[in-house]
Every structure is written in structure tokens, then in C-alpha cells.
Amino acid sequence: MFSYMKFTGIRIKQALLITAAIGVIFSIALIFIADHSVNAAAEGKIFESAQQIPAKKAALLLGANKYVPDGRENLFYNYRIDAAVALYDAHKVEFILVSGDNSRVEYSEPELMKTDLIAAGIPEENIVTDFAGFRTWDSVIRANKVFLENDFIVISQEFHNQRALYAAQANNIEAIAFNAQDVPVAVSPRIWIRERLARVKALLDALFNTGPKFLGEEIPIL
After folding, report:
1. Phi/psi of residue 177, each to 5°?
2. Any idea where the domains of the chain sit in the sequence?
3. Any residues with CB less than 8 A from the CB of 40 and at least 6 apart, and which?
4. What is this structure's pTM?
5. Which CATH class is domain 40-207?
6. To the nearest 10°, the Cα dihedral for 101, 39, 159, 106?
7. I need a surface site. Which of 47, 105, 115, 130 has the fewest CB within 10 A?
8. Do 90 and 50 form a contact (C-beta atoms < 8 A)?
9. Computed from CA positions of residues 39, 201, 166, 180, in that sequence, does the dihedral angle turn out positive or negative?
10. 5-19, 20-34, 80-94: lowest mean pLDDT where?
């Protein structure tokens, strides 16, 4: 009896190990597929120079926290603002659609971005705010479905632009992207890991045709 129980216990452990191994292999494969799909969607659609990028009516500026948890300024945010100003000053866009998180009363990414863009010299009437851009997927779809833009420039860091362009492609939206200055991985190593998971989520969003959290009435950019 004891030998049978011991044998059964070994078999259960083996089954658990095999199951865990299959889970790890599947997860790695899913991450690889998502990464490849996102990179492929952005091929040939990303620009580094404000002088070389084609002009469009509007740019979609993706939101970020202005400050990191320890109170320092967030370089990702600062560089995105700089990139938006560079595009506007180069006469490559007329309007900038700022899209970000506005889920807390005391914090609004769109308002912060709008304030900083105005301070940098962009007229208020050329800035449009999207307060329901809770994630990149939502921001891209809302730019099309709510603000009625189907051919625009996305502004963010390259890794983020790639995912935004994947979202655009998955939703039949024409878009190109302008890279803000990147931030070394050493400054924020969690970003690399978080981005891999975000790409898997984007792949699943495309697979299941996920819509944004909110849509609402149409607000054409004029």
C-alpha cells in the first residue's frame, strides 16, 4: 500500500512538472509570436526625423505619467512632449490629439500634456483632448471612431509606437509613427518586461476584436 501511494505521488509530481513545462513553453511562444507580430506591423511606418515624416492633419500623442513614483520627472513623458512640439514646429501636423488616463479626479494625463504643450508654444485651439485613452488600444481606436481620424501620426517611444501601429493595423486604421527620444532600459528595466506582456495583450485584443472601454459621441477634429 505504501509503495503504491509513493508511486502515485511520483506520478502526480511528474504530471505537474510536465504541465508546468508546457505552460512555460506556451508562454514563451506566445510572447515571441506577439513580439514578431507587433514589429512586423510597424515595419516601414516609423520615422525618426521630423523633416522626413509625411505631413498629416493630426498626431496622436500617447499619454504617460509626468512623474515617476519617487517624484522625479518621467523622461518618457518629457521626450514625448518634445517630439510633439518638434512635429508641430516642422509644420508636419496641424492638430495634436492628447490621449491618456483621466480615471482619477486628482490626476489627468491629457490635461497635463495639454498644459505643457501650450507652455511650449502650441496654440490651445490646436490641441484636442481625449480623456478616455486608458490604454494604447483604446487611444488608437478612439482616434478613429470618436475623433474620426483614419490617417494620423502616433507619437511615443519606438517600442510603444510599434504596439500602437499594430493596434491600428488590427482595426484597419492608417497610421504612421514618429519616435520620441528613447529612454535607456537601465533607467526603467520594468518597462521592457511590461511591454512584452502588453504585446501579448494586444495580440489577444486583436484576436477577440476587443473594443475600447468607452466610445461615446463623435467629435470631429476641425
Report:
1. -140, 150
2. 40-207
3. none
4. 0.90
5. alpha beta
6. 0
7. 105
8. yes
9. negative
10. 5-19
